[in-house]
Amino acid sequence: MNAIAYLRRYWQLYALLILPVSYFIIFKYGPMYGIIIAFKDFNFFQGINGSEWIGFDAFREVFAMSDFYKTLRNTLMLNGLDLLVSFPAPLILAIMLYELNIVWFKKLSQTILYIPHFISWVIIGGIVYQVFGTQSGMINNIVTSLGFESIPFLTDKSDWLITYLVVGVWQSAGWGTIIYLAALTGINRELFEAAEVDGAGRLRKIWSITLPSLKPTIVTLLIINVGHMIAIGFERPYIIGNTAVRDYSDVLSTFVYRIGIESGQYTLATVVGLFQAVVGLVFVLGANYFSKKLADQSIL
Amino acid sequence: MVKVANVKKKASMLLALTLASTMVLSACGSNNENKGSESTGGEGASGKPVTLKVEVFDRGNSPSGSTITKNYLTSYAQDNFGTPNNINLQYVPIPRSEEIQKLNVLMASGSDVPDIVFTYDSPTFYRYAQQGGLTELGELLDQYGPNLKKFLGEDTLAYGQYEGKQYALPAKRAHLGKYSSFIRQDWLDKLNLPVPQTTDELYNTLKAFKEKDPGQTGGKVIPLGMALASAQYEPLIWSFIQPVTEEQRYTLTQQLGSNDYPTLLPGFKDALQFMNRLYNEGLMSTDFSLDEDKKKLGEDAAKGLVGFFSEDDMNPFYADALYATLQKNIPDAKLSAVDVYTNSEGKHPKPEYAPVGLYLMIPKSSKNAVEAIKYLDWMASGDNLLNMQNGVEGENYTLQDGIPVTKADASDEVKNRIYNWGDMAIISNGKQLGDTEKNVEAYVFGMPEQFREETRKALSVSRSDTIKPVLFDRPIEAQSKYGTSLRDKFHEIIVKTTMVKPDQFDGTFESMMKDYMANGGQAILDERTKAYEAMK
Question: Does A30 contact B at CB distance below 8 Å?
Fold first, then answer.
C-alpha cells in the first residue's frame, strides 16, 4: 500500500480532523506568537514586529518585584488548600449520591447541587457580601443577636481563607460529581451483590469496590489539578478578595491584570504568563511521572 | 524500512503541511494591520464627503427611539457641522465602564481607531504620547481652532502637553470643587448639639451619636459613614496634612492615577491614627474596606443609620438619590452640608479637581486631524455648546439671569433630547456659562427645588480652602508605571492601619510604608525630586 492508496482510503478521516486542528492552530497556537513581547519593549503603535528586543530584561524586572513572590506564594497556597479541601469534596458527594436509593430524591439533590456552578462569580460575590459581611451580614446578624462578637469573615486574613474555600466548595463540588457519577455507572452491580453475600457492610463496599473503581478517574483529575497549581482563575480571588485581605487574596492572575490591563505594561504581564505556563508544564509532567511510578496510572 | 510505516510517515507529513499552511494564512491576516498610519491634513471640503469618526461613551441609558450613535444630539452635530462642511460624522461607542481597556485595544489595532478618542486617565494619555501614538496638535489648534483655544484657555491646555508639545486637548472643567461633608441636622437638634466646627468637636459629636443613638436605630448607628473611596477618606486625611513648602508640595506628593496622594506628606500618619481611633471605638463603618463603590455607605445613609459623612459635593441631592431616599424612609430627616475637618491652621483643606475633564486626543493614524479640530472648534463657537448642553430654549429650558433653568414640565420626549449631553459636549466637563459662579448656579438649578439651598451650600464648601493638584512640566514616568499598583497599596495602608488594634498601629504603619516605598513609592519620590530640581 503506497501513500496515495492510503490517503485515498482514509482521506475522510483526515478531512474530519481539519476543523478541530485548525481551531487549535488559530486559537491556541496562533496567539503563542504574542509571547515574543515578553522579550521586547512592547510599543502599542509600532506593533510586535516594530518593538525593540530587550532580551531577558523584563524577566529580571519581574523577578525583582516583591509583589511577584507574594502573589506566587498566594497562588500556590490557595491552590494547595483547594486541592486539600475542594478536590475531595465532589468525590465524597458523588459516593453519597451513588448510595442513595430513592430515585426522585437523588435527581432533585443532583440538580440543586449543580445550580451554583451556573451562577456568575460576580453574583456569588454579591451573595457572599450579604451573607458574610461583618456589619450587616446574615450570619453575623445571628451571631451578634446571640450576644457574641461578630466574626470578620471577609476582613481577617485567616477567616477569609475559610470563606474562600467554603465558597469554592459550594460553587464547584456539585458540578464536579458528574465525572465521578459517570465513572460509577460503569461498575458491575454483581460485584456489590457478591460482596453482600459475603457479608460486607456499606462502608466495606465503598472502600473495597466503589473507591478502587474510581481510582483511574481520581488520578486523572488529580494530575490535571496539580497541573493547574500555578494557574489560578481570575474571578474567584478578585471578587471574593478585598483590600483588607490582599496579603492572601492577591494572586498571579490579579497581579497580571493589574500590571497588564490596568497599567498597560504588556511586556511584564506576558513574562508572568509565560512563567506560569512553563512551571505549569513542569507540574503536569511531574505529577504524571509520579503517578506512573507509584500507582501505574498516567494520562500521557 | 517497513513500507507501512513509511506510508504513515508520509501521511503525517501531509497533515503537518496542512497545519503549516493554515498557520501561514492566519499569520498573514494579522500582518496587514500596522500599515497606513501616515497622517496627513485632510482636504475634502468639496467632492467626496469625509467620514469623521468620534468616540462616544456608551452608558447603556439611551431612551427608546434613540441609540447612542443616533439621537437628537448626533443629528444636531451632523446638521449644523457635518453637512455644511461635507463631513459625515460617525460615532464609535465605547462602554463607559471599560473605557481604558477598550481604548487600548482600539489604539493597538491601529486601523479602525476613531479620529477623536478620549480618556479621563492622564497616565493613559501620557503613555500614548510617550509611545508616539498621537498627533501633535499645537499648529493645528492655532490654524483651525481659534475658538477652541480661547475656550479652553492656557491653564487647561497645559495639562495636555507632553514634553512641551500639545498632544491632547483637555476638556475644560466648569466647577473645580470636589467634596463636601454632610451631617444629620435633625440628630444634632434632638441632642441639642451645635454643628461641630473642628475635627475635635466632630469627634465628640460622633461619640454622642453613638451613645445616645438619636436616630433610634437600635444599636445599628454608624456615627461616621466611611467607604474605601476618595470622597470619604480624602477630606479626612488631607485635613491632617501639615502646611508645607512649595518644594515639599512638589516632591512629596504622589500622583497615582488622576489624584494626588499625601502618602509622604507630614501629617499622613496622624490622619491614619485618627481613623484607627474612630474605628476601634466603633465610631466608623465596620465594613468600609469592602465598600469601594460607596454602595453600602449610600444604603446605610439612606436608611438613616449614618450621622456624618463626606461625599462628592452634589451627589446626595439628585432626584431619587441619597437625600430623597432618606426623606422617603424617614420623613423628618434633615441633611446639612457642613465643613468640619480642620487642619492645624484652622482651615478646612480639601483637594480640588485639576481644571480638566476628558483628555481629547487624535491618534497618529488619523487622516482627518484637521476635520477633528474643526469639529471641536465648532462645538466651542457660537451657541453650539449651550444648545448641546441644554437643548432648545423655551422647550427644554428658560433663561433666568443668564442661567438656563430646566423646565420641569417638559415632556419626556423633549427631556430625552439631551440625555447624553455630558458625553457629546466633550470639550467641557459640566455646564459652561462664562464664569464659575454662573456654572455653579446652573448646577443648583439642576436639582429638585427643595434641595437647592443645601446644594448651594455644599458647592461653596467644596470650593473653599482647596488644595490644587501639582502639575509638573514633564510627566513622571514612575507614576504611570507604578500608579495603579501603588493606589492599591495606598488603600491597603488605610485599611490595615485603621483596622489594626491601637497598640499595633505603629508597627503596621512602618511595615506598610516600607512596602509602599519599595514597590515604586521611592522611585516616584526620586523622579519628582529630580524633576523639581530641573524645573527651578
Answer: yes
B398, B404 contact by CB (below 8 A): yes
Which chain A residue has the Cα nearest residue B364?
A: A45
Task: Please tell me which residue of chain A has the smallest CA distance to B23.
Answer: A25
- Beta carbons of B30 and B108 less than 8 angstroms apart: no
Q: Provide the pLDDT for residue B46.
A: 58
B7 in contact with chain A, both atoms CB, cutoff 8 A: yes
pTM of the model: 0.83
pLDDT in tens, B241-272: 999 999 999 999 999 988 899 999 999 999 99
Dihedral angle computed from the Cα positions of residues A210, A215, A221 and A226, in that order, rounded to the nearest 10 degrees:
130
Q: Please tell me the CATH code under which domain A56-295 is placed.
A: 1.10.3720.10
Contact of A237 with A167, CB cutoff 8 Å: no
In sequence order, the 6+-apart residues with CB closer than 8 A to the CB of A62 are A68, A268, A271, A272, A275
Alpha carbons A290 and A294: distance in angstroms, whole number: 6
> Region B229-238: what's the mean pLDDT?
95
C-alpha span between B461 and B337 (Å, rounded): 8
Instruction: Please spell the DSSP secondary structure of B154-168, one letter per residue.
Output: HHHHHTTEETTEE--
DSSP for B357-409, written as a single string = EEEEE-BTT-S-HHHHHHHHHHHHSTTHHHHHHH-SBTTTEEEETTEEEE-TT
List, as ranges, residues 226-245 from A with C-beta within 8 Å of B.
Answer: 242-244
**Cross-strand partners of B311:** B180
Cβ under 8 Å to A: B residues 280-309 = 285-287, 289-290, 292
In tens, the pLDDT along B118-167 reads 999 888 898 899 888 999 999 999 999 999 999 999 999 999 998 889 99
What does the block give as the cell for A224?
490535571
Distance from CA of B244 to the nearest CA of A (A): 30
Q: Which of A133-142, B49-58, B59-68 has the highest mean pLDDT?
A: B49-58
CA quadruple B267, B273, B275, B279: dihedral, nearest 10: 180
Pairing of strands B179-184, B306-312: antiparallel
Asked if A66's CB is within 8 angstroms of B519's CB, the reply is yes
Angle CA B3–B6–B7, to nearest 5: 90
Q: Chain centroid to CA A154: how far?
A: 22
In whole angstroms, how far apart are CA B515 and each of A215, B256, B321, B512?
47, 16, 39, 5
Nearest one of B156, B113, B497, B181 to B339, comparing CA atoms: B181
Cβ-defined contact of A18 to B133 (cutoff 8 Å)? no
Measure the CA angle with vertex B216, ends B211 and B219; round to 5°: 55
- Nearest CB among B10, B15, B26 relative to A30 is that of B26
As to burial, measured by CB atoms within 10 angstroms (0-12 exposed, 13-18 middle, 19+ buried), residue B158 is: middle
First to last CA, chain B: 82
ipTM of this complex prediction, to 2 decimal places: 0.82
Distance from CA of B124 to the nearest CA of A (A): 8
Domain residue extents for chain A:
1-55, 56-295
Which residue segments constitute the domains of chain B, with CATH numbers given? 50-175+355-434 (3.40.190.10), 179-351+447-535 (3.40.190.10)
Measured at the CA of A224, the angle between CA A223 and CA A228, to 5 degrees, comes to 115
Q: What is the mean pLDDT of chain B?
A: 88
Partner-chain contact B285 A129, CB within 8 Å: no
Partner-chain contact A246 B7, CB within 8 Å: no
